[in-house]
Amino acid sequence: MRARYGVPLKITAGIAAAGAAGLAYAAGFEARSFRLRRISVPVLPAGTRPLRVLQVSDIHMVRGQRKKRAWLQSLAGLRPDFVVNTGDNLSDPEGVPEVLDALGPLMEFPGVYVFGSNDYYGPKLRNPARYLLEKAQGRHGLNGGNAPAVGVVHNPWEGIRDAFDAAGWLDLTNTRGKLKLDGLELAFTGLDDPHIKRDRYEQVAGGPDPDADLSIGVVHAPYLRSLDAFTGDGYPLVLAGHTHGGQLCIPFYGALVTNCDLDTDRVKGLSTHQAGGHTSYLHVSAGCGTNRYTPVRFACPPEATLLTLTPKDQ
Question: How far apart are CA 93 and CA 287, in angstroms?
Answer without folding.
Answer: 19
